[in-house]
């Protein structure tokens, strides 16, 4: 199979691919560190987020969604893999990837992760543990100043471990 066999739009150049993949991975670090103001700022003002927990349109709605979503983020790290980058119909860059959520500590222990980042946290069982898998499609736009922004985020095909999710 060659890239012409894939049902995607035109293939971006290597620089665009590297920038787009780097950007979506950096956005996940903002989730991991729970830097909400910085996180909201990497989305366009008219962003649409389609998530199994609901749809938000615009930055204020996204901020409200994130406020409700926060409790399940404590003690969790995100890992993106198998990125596929293509141009969308409107010229935006579309990055599709799988995201794996790994619970590295119970939610109650999460503050210690920030306070003592060089400490090895040991558990008798269960951690670290894969707690969720999903497919994510981010539609990115590049501003005139060269900054990337997420215009649309779609999270689908979610499978979760309900025992260790929180």
Written account of the structure:
The protein starts with 13 loop residues before the first helix and ends in a 6-residue tail after the last strand. It contains four helices and six strands, in the order H-H-E-E-H-E-E-H-E-E. Helices cover 26% and strands 38% of the residues. The chain has 166 residues and is of the alpha+beta class.
Please specify the SSE layout and strand pairing.
Elements: H1 14-33, H2 36-41, E1 43-51, E2 54-57, H3 59-69, E3 76-87, E4 93-103, H4 110-115, E5 129-142, E6 148-160
Parallel strand pairs: 1-6
Antiparallel strand pairs: 1-2, 3-4, 4-5, 5-6
Strand order of the largest sheet: 2-1-6-5-4-3
What is the rounded distance between the termini?
41 Å
Radius of gyration based on Cα positions: 17 Å
Task: Spell the H/E element sequence.
Answer: HHEEHEEHEE
Beta-strand fraction estimate: 35-45%
Task: Give the uncertain stretches in residue-range form.
Answer: none
Shape designation: globular
* Helical/strand content category: alpha+beta
The count of β-strands is 6
Assembly context of the chains: single chain
Q: Quick recap of the structure?
A:
With 166 residues, the chain is an alpha+beta fold. It has helices at residues 14-33, 36-41, 59-69, 110-115, and strands spanning 43-51, 54-57, 76-87, 93-103, 129-142, 148-160. The longest helix has 20 residues, at 14-33.
What are the defining features of this structure?
6 strands, alpha+beta, 6-stranded mixed β-sheet, 26% helix, 166 residues
């Amino acid at each position: 199979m060659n890239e012409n066999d894939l049902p995607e739009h035109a293939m971006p150049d290597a620089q665009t691919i590297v920038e787009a993949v780097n950007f979506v991975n950096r956005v996940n670090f903002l989730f991991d560190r729970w830097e909400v103001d910085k996180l909201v700022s990497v989305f366009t003002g008219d962003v649409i987020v389609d998530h199994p927990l609901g749809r938000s349109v615009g930055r204020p709605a996204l901020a409200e969604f994130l406020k409700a979503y926060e409790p399940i983020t404590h003690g969790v790290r995100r890992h993106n893999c198998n990125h596929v980058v293509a141009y969308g119909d409107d010229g935006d860059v579309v990055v599709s990837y799988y995201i794996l959520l790994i619970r590295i500590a119970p939610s109650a222990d999460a503050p210690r992760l920030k306070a003592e980042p060089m400490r090895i946290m040991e558990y008798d069982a269960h951690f670290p543990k894969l707690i969720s898998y999903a497919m994510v499609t981010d539609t990115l736009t590049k501003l005139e100043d060269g900054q990337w922004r997420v215009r649309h985020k779609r999270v689908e095909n979610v499978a979760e471990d309900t025992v260790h999710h929180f």
